Structures are given as C-alpha cells and as structure tokens.
Amino acid sequence: MKLPKVGFIPIQFIQEDKAATELSEKACSKLKDTQKLDVLKANPVFTAQQARNAVRRCFAEDVDVVIYFISCWIDSSVVISAVQEVGMPYIVWGCSDLNTQSLLGAVEAVTSLKNLEEKFKAVYGDPGDEKTVEEIVTRAKAARVLKKLRRAKIGFIGGITFGMYDAVHDLVALREKLGVDVVHLDQYRIIEEMDRIPESDVEAAISKASNRVGRVEAGKEHMVKSFKIYLALKRLIEKFEFDAIMIKCHPDLSQIYGACGCIGASLLIDDDLPCACEGNLYTAVTMLILHELTGSPPFCHEISAVDTEGSTMLLWHCGAGAPSLAKNPSEVTLKQQYAAPVEKGGQMGGVTLDFWVKAGNATIAILGGVCENIKMQISQGEILEPRKMDLGAGKIWARALIKVPDAEKFIKETLGHQFVTVHGEVEKELTDLCDLANIPTV
C-alpha cells in the first residue's frame, strides 16, 4: 500500500540557532525511521517568502500533508504566510525542549492560526515519543485518503432500491466535503455490455472463480447470468475509469433479468475495486475509504441480529462478500441465490457466496445523513470465530459475528441499514479524515 507523503518544513527564527537546527533534524529523522511515511524535507525557513516557496514545492511534489515543525520561538506570520499561500492539510508540531523553546513557539503559532479559524492539527511531543509520531502518521494517512477521494470517480449505476430513504444522498454535499465525482449510468448499460461478452470469456471467468473456492452448488444458467454481470461491470469500470461503483440490482437484475449482482460485486472487491449494491452511494464511498486506509477488502453488510449482553452483532448481506474474506478458500461455496421475493409475483435468481468472514480486529463504519447533514458512524470491533447458530435466510450468505464496545448504543445510533466492516484498526484515521472534511462522527 502506498505510503502517505509528508512535507517537513522546519521553521526557525535566526539562522545561527544550532540547537533549533539539530532539533528539527532529529524530528525529521524519527519520522523517516518509522518507514510509515514518505518524507520530503525542506531546508529551515526563516522568512515568510521562504515559507511560501517551501510549501509551493510541497504542492508541486504532490504531498498529502505538510508538517510545520516549530523548532524554537518564531514569528507566527511566517507560518501564516505559508498556510494561506496553498490550501493543503497541515500539522503544526512543537516539542518540550528547554534549550530552544520549541513548545512556546508552537503554542504561539497555533493560537494565532486558531484566531484565523484555520483547520489544522496541533501536535505537541518529543521527536522520540511514539505517541507523537503515531499522531502524525494517523493524520497523514487520513490526508492521503482525502486526496484520493478528491480525485476519485464513483459509478452510480441505476438508482436507489425500493423505499430506502436512508440511502438518499446529496451529490453537491458529497463533492463539497469529500470531493468525489459521481457519474450516473442507467442500469441498462450493464445489460448492453453483457450482450457484447463472448461466451468463451464467461466460461473462463466461471472456471477461474470455481477453482478459487471449495465447492460450486449453483446451476449452470444462474452461473452464466451472474458472471456476465461481473464481466459487464468490469468493462464499465475500465471504460469510465471508476475507482468504485454502486449498482442498484433489485429488481432489474435480480428478478427481471434473473440474476443478482452478488458475484460481480464480490469478485470486483477482490480486484481492488469496491462495489456496493442496492443503490447506496454512502456504502460505496465508505468502502473506498476503508479499502484505501487498509488495503484490505471491505465487507458490505447489514446487521441482522444484536446481542446486547454479549455486545455482538451478526452481519450479513444478500450475497456480496469477497472470497478472500474467508479464512480459507475451501470454506467458500458458490450457491444458487435464496429464492426470496423481490417484487410481487417474482423471485430473485443468480449466485451467492456462502462462508464465514475470518476472525480478527476490525473497524465498522458508515456514512449517512440527509443531504448536507452527512455524518460518519465508527466503531472498533473484533470479528469472532464462527459459532453454531440459527442463521435463517443468511445460512447461504457471507456473514460475520462482530464484538463491539457497545452493540446496543451502536444500533440505536445507526445512520443507515447498511454498513462496511474491514479488517484492521483505523478508527483514529477515520476520525481524522472526518475532521479534515468537516464531517461529524457518531
């Protein structure tokens, strides 16, 4: 996974201050030693013009976040000139060094920037302090993902499924806060692409996927239809250069065409192309965020049951789940989709995936909110080992059992009925991302 790129700009008061120079050199070295950041170091700056030149270089080098290291008492106008020159995420860092008075200079700079209502992160800690370095790394990761979002293009294929009011979104607000470009396509474009796919390509895709799983228990017709959807979606992604997509699925694909988009979504996620379903753009954006933060396949799901005493939640969806989420490929079964009614007088068809998601530390999150009132719900959690339990309809779908700090509180504060879970602990990164984007967290 690509490392966040940071610009390190040491701010000094006078050129002859050897102690300040040594302190900034030490701070920069500690950041490089983490091997978690790609560090672009500027020479110490003493004037507003030098600071402007340094930050313009950071912009030209496409850094994700700028660090203004306050190595001593400074003239705050030097920092102010830089941050107002180029609109980039930035950190102001000072430390408790009695020889240089770095902390005093940093506090003076920070309070001046607050008076100007600037958005930034202040970090106070010694260069060798792990907590301090981790704060910087976390912010840098968040800034890298926000930059990715501002350059991302998401395909919105179809529309919102049924009466899912919690999936209603505001494209203008999403663009304003996260910068994502959403391109709408009619769901008929999938059918149009399917008509152009050679049968040999379909057979090859079926064979490849079948060899990756433990068992195949779906009929030929359902397999062919489902894998045509997968290949059609891949073509649309390549044609429009999408970074993630959302498909409506119900009932156009799942019932009228006769195959849901579960296999397509699942395999695309393993191709590093987040794919959400049922018309929920918030889910697609959340999947892209979590994938960019972790490099792991995100699991799009609903919460089907809550145990408040054990603080656990049973997660599943109607079939989408990347095969690599399973502990072992042999545990994955391709099954014919559950014959549930979608619209009156019909049932959905296609192929689904049956497996338990592997255990491990995880993060669960979702964007939600009507129009411009976008929020993000976030919680750390632990996906537990599978256990025997009554799964009802979910016995043929990808599923997970997750333990969170307070399951009752989580479900009462929910922003929507769909969520995204990913392996890895990135709650702090998500919180920093929301801070950068002015999105409240729950």
- In round numbers, the mean pLDDT is 94
- The oligomerization state is single chain
Major sheet summary line = 6 strands, antiparallel, barrel
Q: What's the count of strands?
A: 18
Helix content: 25-40%
Q: What fraction of residues sit in β-strands?
A: 15-25%
Which blocks of ≥5 consecutive residues have pLDDT under 50?
Answer: none
Strand line-up of the largest beta sheet = 11-12-17-16-15-18
Helix-strand category: alpha/beta
Count up the helices: 14
Please state the CA-atom Rg, rounded to the nearest Å.
25 Å
Shape: elongated
N- and C-termini, Cα separation: 28 Å
Characterise this structure.
The chain has a six-stranded antiparallel barrel with strand order 11-12-17-16-15-18. The chain has a five-stranded parallel β-sheet with strand order 2-1-3-4-5, with helices on both faces. The chain has a four-stranded parallel β-sheet with strand order 7-6-9-10, sandwiched between helices. 38% of the residues lie in helices and 23% in strands. It is built from 14 helices and 18 strands.
Summarize the structure.
The protein contains 14 helices and 18 strands. With 442 residues, it is of the alpha/beta class.
How would you describe this structure in keywords?
single chain, 442 residues, alpha/beta, 14 helices
